[in-house]
Design brief:
Blueprint (H helix, E strand, L loop, with lengths): L10 H10 L1 H4 L4 H7 L6 H7 L10 H4 L19 H6 L11 H6 L13 H21 L27 H13 L7 E3 L6 E3 L5 E2 L7 H14 L9 H8 L11 H15 L5 H21 L3 H17 L3 H17 L28 H25 L25 H6 L27 H18 L9 H15 L24 H18 L5 H20 L10 H17 L5 H24 L4 H12 L3
Antiparallel strand pairs: 1-2, 2-3
Helix pairs in contact: 10-12, 12-13, 12-14, 13-14, 14-15, 14-16, 15-16, 16-18, 18-19, 18-20, 19-20, 20-21, 20-22, 21-23, 22-23, 22-24, 23-24
Length: 630
Amino acid sequence: MVFSPYLRVSSSADHFQRRSSSFIDRPPSRAHCSRAFPLLEPAGAINSTRSPTRPFQQPPSLLTTTTSEPMPTANLPRGHACIECHNRKSRCDGGKPICSSCRRSHRQCVYNEPVVKSGQQQLLERMRQLEEMLAEIQADPRTSISSAGSTTSPSPPSPRSLSSHGEGQRSSSGSSQSRSRSPRADGELVPGTNMTWNRPGVVPTPPPTEMTRHLRQNLINYFFLHREKCFFEVHVPRFTAALSLSSGNPNALHPALVNAVLLIGCYWARAASLATLESQLLGQVLCELSMSYQQADRLHDHIRASNLVTFYYICKGMHNEAEVQIEHSARVAFLCGMHQIISSIHRPPIPGQHVGLLPPASDNIELGERIHTLWQIFSLDKIVSLITERPACMLGAPGVDSLLAVTTPWPRLMIEYETMNLSEMERQSVHDLYNLTPVFGLRPETLVGLEAQGLSVAQRAMYISTFNYAPGAPELDMLDKAIQKYIDRLPGLRNEGGSGQILATQGHSSINHRLVFIRTLGFTASLLLHQHLKDRYSHDRCNIAAQNLAAIVSELTPDDYGRLSIGLGHLWVTTGCILVSLTEKVSSSGAQHFRGIASTVLSGLKQLSIVYPPLGFQTRHLHQIIYGTP
């Protein structure tokens, strides 16, 4: 607001004083009246006792400051009387340094006034209290962090053990977490966590955590039930055995990865009693990631832990944090050379030739895990790019600098790495998506590879659609053919197997939930590329893609949504918005057709938002633009 110099600025203050004045809430006291006019007396009293020629004089107490008793005032607020008047329950006028009652009785007048402390003094006292609490916790050996060092049975996790994790166990664990929670007093609280950043080393320090062996194993079980949604592919027996090793074992996983696994398990447990533990685990992971990066300690585990934190941020709707985290994962992977692994077949390193941050892979299983980790970064990076509509970190499209291009071969099944069922011919990578020359003798791509390929063409289509290319431009034509090539070799929605190679049995096969995401990727990419409807061909491609998307959603039952990934929800948000925009570019009958498909997509999105609550905002927004009502 700009105030004019000709306006009476104090008018608002005068109005506030009139609104808050004591003259409104209670009648004026005698002292207030005497300031404005003389005390009136009956007319008879004036004629009989006072000379009419004698001028009126103000009481001296109103003109000068004297030590005489003050005039009676209104009642004091509760708690403002002196101690003597309070104990005797006598009327106190609040005079200072001595009230009128104490002066008349010759008593010592003492007020019990609270000591007013500045904000700085209060902060210093609070810091001293926290330092004392921290010293007590550090001195108690029972509060040592046991999440990374606990030992469990090396047997693979079984879903049956999940039923043994009762609410009583979870609530007791949650209460122990709340008792041991104590942030440091010499740092800054990190938003969204219970950890703090120390000033000297800029290393986050989480509060200590207690975890029972039973709870730890149940969180690991939850993680393995949902690890495919995180694009997390490992050799399960070896990874499970490494989880059971103590932190001092040289073959143990880095504590950052262990706690990241527990964090994802805690998220999927969906128990209110584990909310504090979930926040503490996030703080521990970030703390250990910082230390691992500074010391270059087990960087493969570091990258995998960072990827899991990225997925956690996506599930929580923290997209900016997810973008920063996946950018860090990509940067470390580039430094380690994981984006340009030459072959899927392990070869012993030549002595004296290895120079890098990562030691050479010990065998083919470890090499396969590194390849899968690279494509996990790639997939999460593309999902974050589709959500935020900002450029991706991992590049692979034509024309990219050869030093930055991703040339690591597409991932194969872990059983194939274990049994050496690999071929030197299988070196295709991102750039081969745009090579339309057919290559014979190759096996079908794995579902993990199809996910990465679909995300690559979908993110590329989103990027290309931001430019005003003319119909038939080489960039549009090349990407359109790559999308069609991708769609044409997709398995059926009910196929099974690691590559979707097992055909569906009529009437007996359930939906393959990974293929729901994979097939949606292809048709979403087609919609993104042709959404501007510049010619009849684009209109036909959009119509085909929309019909296939509606068919996929119609195949789902309420029991299927709990096994779908959160990335599918964001794809539905994108396709729903595009379908609504298409209604403004076609005829009335075409608009009704696209609007009906958008409503079908919205119905699926509403079901999925129950599993992933952060999708609720996009769901309400899509509902509003489809129906015009909140």
